[in-house]
Design brief:
The chain has 70 residues and is mainly alpha-helical. It has a single domain, classed as Helix Hairpins (Orthogonal Bundle). The chain contains three helices and no strands. Helix 2 runs antiparallel to helix 3. The radius of gyration is 15 Å and the shape is elongated.
Length: 70
């Protein structure tokens, strides 16, 4: 998912997607330990997606703080 698409989501949607991505990462880790995961690049993709979600959530949080100070 591209960053532009993520920015269009509401904060609640973003938090739900973040929780889903973290769950998927946990499942991928279990699969790699048990030897079921063949496409290990999904780990990197999922970690980066989580980072994107967290970055955009943090940007929104900081912008709300700045608006509150004014």
């Amino acid at each position: 998912m591209k960053t532009e698409q993520i920015r269009l989501m509401s904060t609640e949607e973003l938090k739900a997607k973040l929780a889903d991505a973290r769950q998927e990462l946990m499942n991928l880790r279990f699969q790699i330990v048990t030897g079921q995961l063949t496409d290990t690049s999904r780990l990197k993709q999922t970690r980066r997606l989580i980072a994107r979600y967290m970055t955009i959530l943090r940007e929104r949080e900081l912008s709300q703080q700045r608006e509150g100070e004014k």
